[in-house]
């Protein structure tokens, strides 16, 4: 049931060219560039016009999230559904959904090192990418071609993560240089300027998330701590009002710090809820923690019995989806008191069918591998390797209807809560 | 290739200590942690009350102390209790522990693996199997990622 409702998409050469009738796709090896079928002409078409606000209903799919594939990152924007991924190399590939197939529309080649972060700003239609070459580029679509603008980050180690702020007037880059670069556009000089948040970060910043007020920034890093910083830039915004996290927010101030203290592991991923009052993070010691800013600062930690989780996301004010090395997304609930409980795995394998192995196969196995057992090394989950990113596909952070996961196996899977609630007993997303 | 590739004795300075960016963990005052109460645990074992002995020996773990003696003492005591259990009771013993207890038990088990003696490994392996089914892989991951352990 899951396989029909949640589609597994493999953005490899074979899927992009299978949209046309080219029969050479099945024969093309992954190493050769795929032959360009005629359907890739959309490169030359102008971008679709955004619907005027009052006259038309909003477009049905508003994915504005980042997702990763092959341990790199991707992001998507509004109509038509597009996704930017990096197949773990120096390039970004943009795919467009046409019908049921994903078609590659652009290739962004500018980075000299592996791309470690991509984020797509849906309203201003800009893509920011950061890489192991210590650079970040902001890409804008001009005449159907994506043009890069270099951003001087002033870091001397690789960038690890990048995220646009909610108003898309600045973005934050985490790096191995033990600092966060918050970049904003200075129109006088027509370039992007970066400001650094250094203290008290003591190791690589692995993950960032912005608070809805566009000022606060949560950062998870390898020094086992999750912190909330202020990234207030007076040149581009007004002074923010007080929040449950604090009221005085000069740039670089630490408003909250959690974790460490002899235990804990690297904080792989952080996520604010849609109200900004709750902050969730997952750590390498196989724990998920949520803290509610309005209820004092004692975080509620859940020690899971799974392998460490790598990505976490609020999909409603009370529910959190996380996924990681177990290759399976998991649902957790955070109740009003702030305590966290595990609800269910979201990728329940169908009852495994024991195949009847033919006699021929038995003899072949006996000959080759000295055993007659069935050679099934595939995992029971949809993803065959760790999931590195969970992102919203349809809906927003207060009410997500579909989310998508990408992983090191190079697969992108889209999960639909309606069909999950139907197929898993007693599952209700609150 | 340079001539001195055999011995490391010429390395008299640990340069990592002088690295100003070296990550130093927070100090958590654990000087007063004394480990489980030996007398109490011994008396419970003699009485045959092994469940209580297990609970008692998992109290006050010497996680933060720098005193190696206290840690060794605690480890020996835990091993005594674990060996006193009958094979059929190991499962019940693990079920009587809460999540933190299972994590702590797993820490002691791996500590015990480090210095095997006589029959200790066999006993520890039995306990490891039951603790694994109770705590899952996450329990073992927490043993590996804990920087201050028993």
Automatic annotation (TrEMBL), chain A:
WD repeat start-end pairs: 108-144
Biased composition (Low complexity): 11-30, 63-80
Compositionally biased tracts (Polar residues): 1-10
Family membership noted in the UniProt record: Belongs to the WD repeat ARPC1 family.
Locations listed in the record: Cytoplasm, Cytoskeleton; Nucleus
GO terms under biological process: Arp2/3 complex-mediated actin nucleation
Primary location class: cytoplasm
InterPro entries the UniProt entry points to: ARPC1, WD40/YVTN_repeat-like_dom_sf, WD40_repeat_dom_sf, WD40_rpt
Keyword set, alphabetical order: Actin-binding, Cytoplasm, Cytoskeleton, Nucleus, Repeat, WD repeat
Protein name: Actin related protein 2/3 complex subunit 1B
GO molecular function term, any single one: actin filament binding
A Pfam family that the UniProt record links to this protein: WD40
Spans annotated as Disordered: 1-31, 61-80
Recorded GO CC terms: Arp2/3 protein complex; nucleus
TrEMBL record, chain B:
Gene Ontology biological process: Arp2/3 complex-mediated actin nucleation; regulation of actin filament polymerization
Location relative to the cell: Cytoplasm, Cytoskeleton
Keywords assigned by UniProt, alphabetized: Actin-binding, Cytoplasm, Cytoskeleton
Record's GO cellular component terms: Arp2/3 protein complex
Pfam families (alphabetical): P16-Arc (PF04699)
Gene3D superfamilies: Actin-related protein 2/3 complex subunit 5
Record InterPro entries: ARPC5, ARPC5_sf
Domain of life: Eukaryota
Molecular functions per Gene Ontology: actin binding
Coiled-coil parts of chain: none
Role noted for this protein: Functions as component of the Arp2/3 complex which is involved in regulation of actin polymerization and together with an activating nucleation-promoting factor (NPF) mediates the formation of branched actin networks. Arp2/3 complex plays a critical role in the control of cell morphogenesis via the modulation of cell polarity development.
Family per similarity comment: Belongs to the ARPC5 family.
Protein name (record): Actin-related protein 2/3 complex subunit 5
Species assigned in the record: Oncorhynchus kisutch (Coho salmon)
């Amino acid at each position: 049931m899951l396989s029909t409702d949640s589609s597994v998409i493999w953005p490899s050469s074979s899927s992009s060219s299978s949209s046309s009738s080219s029969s050479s796709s099945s024969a093309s090896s992954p190493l050769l560039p795929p032959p360009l079928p005629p359907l890739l002409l959309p490169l030359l078409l102008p971008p679709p016009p955004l619907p005027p606000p009052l006259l038309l209903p909003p477009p049905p799919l508003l994915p504005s999230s980042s997702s990763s594939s092959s341990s790199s990152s991707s992001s998507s924007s509004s109509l038509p559904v597009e996704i930017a991924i990096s197949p773990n190399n120096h390039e970004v590939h943009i795919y467009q959904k046409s019908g049921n197939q994903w078609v590659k529309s652009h290739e962004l080649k500018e980075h000299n090192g592996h791309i470690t972060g991509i984020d797509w700003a849906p309203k201003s239609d800009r893509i920011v990418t950061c890489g192991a070459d210590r650079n970040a580029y902001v890409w804008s679509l001009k005449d159907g071609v994506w043009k890069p603008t270099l951003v001087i980050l002033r870091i001397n180690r690789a960038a690890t993560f990048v995220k646009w702020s909610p108003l898309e007037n600045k973005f934050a880059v985490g790096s191995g240089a033990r600092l966060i670069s918050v970049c904003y556009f200075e129109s006088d000089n027509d370039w992007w300027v970066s400001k650094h948040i250094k203290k008290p970060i003591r190791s690589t910043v692995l993950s960032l998330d912005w608070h809805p007020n566009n000022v606060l920034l949560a950062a998870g890093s390898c020094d086992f701590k999750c912190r909330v910083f202020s990234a207030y830039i007076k040149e581009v915004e007004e002074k923010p009002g007080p929040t449950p996290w604090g009221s005085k927010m000069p740039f670089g101030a630490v408003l909250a710090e959690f974790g460490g203290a002899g235990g804990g592991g690297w904080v792989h991923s952080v996520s604010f809820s849609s109200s900004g009052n709750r902050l969730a993070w997952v750590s390498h010691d196989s724990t998920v923690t949520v803290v509610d800013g309005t209820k004092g600062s004692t975080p509620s930690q859940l020690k899971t019995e799974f392998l460490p989780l790598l990505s976490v996301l609020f999909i409603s004010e009370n529910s959190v989806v996380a996924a990681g090395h177990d290759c399976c997304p998991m649902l957790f609930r955070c109740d009003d008191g702030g305590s966290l409980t595990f609800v269910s795995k979201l990728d329940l394998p169908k009852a495994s069918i024991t195949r009847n192995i033919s006699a021929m196969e038995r003899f072949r196995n006996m000959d080759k591998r000295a055993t007659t057992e069935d050679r099934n090394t595939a995992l029971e989950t949809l993803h065959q390797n760790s999931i590195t990113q969970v992102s919203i596909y349809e809906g927003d952070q207060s009410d997500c209807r579909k989310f998508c996961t990408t992983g090191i196996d190079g697969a992108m899977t889209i999960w639909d809560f309606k069909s999950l609630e139907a197929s898993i007993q007693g599952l209700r997303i609150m | 290739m340079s001539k001195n590739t055999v011995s490391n004795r010429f390395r008299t300075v640990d340069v990592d200590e002088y690295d100003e960016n070296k990550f130093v963990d927070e100090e958590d005052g654990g000087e007063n942690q004394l480990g489980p109460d030996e007398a109490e645990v011994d008396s419970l074992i003699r009485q045959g009350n092994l469940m209580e002995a297990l609970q008692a020996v998992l109290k006050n773990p010497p996680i933060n102390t720098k005193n190696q003696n206290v840690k060794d003492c605690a480890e020996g005591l835990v091993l005594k209790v674990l060996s006193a259990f009958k094979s059929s009771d190991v499962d019940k013993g693990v079920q009587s522990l809460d999540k933190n207890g299972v994590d702590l038990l797993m820490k002691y088990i791996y500590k015990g693996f480090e210095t095997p003696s006589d029959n200790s490994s066999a006993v520890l392996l039995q306990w490891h199997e039951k603790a694994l089914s109770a705590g899952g892989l996450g329990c073992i991951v927490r043993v590996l990622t804990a920087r201050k352990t028993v």
